[in-house]
Amino acid sequence: MKQQDHSRTARIEARIAPDALAIVRRAAEIQGRSVSDFVVAAAQEAAQKTVAEVEIIQLSREAQEQFISLLLNPPPPSAALMRALDRHRSLIVE
Fold this sequence. Notes:
Elements: H1 3-6, H2 18-31, H3 35-55, H4 61-72, H5 79-91
Helix pairs in contact: 2-3
């Protein structure tokens, strides 16, 4: 058994149409995996992709350059930001 098999502690169940199961079985067979291993790997890959789509911000080349430019050369603080800083300092005693 693989080391990974020993750490599994949760079980999931799903109903699947016979034709869908047939294609999953075929795909698992092609990859030399069990149906269970194939389904777990496919679900994990789909989950990682879904999370990455939400957590990773992709910018165009132009937007990347503008972002870096603003980080390296930030504009001076606005009047509203300075008022907020003064208000923060009046409320928070360090």
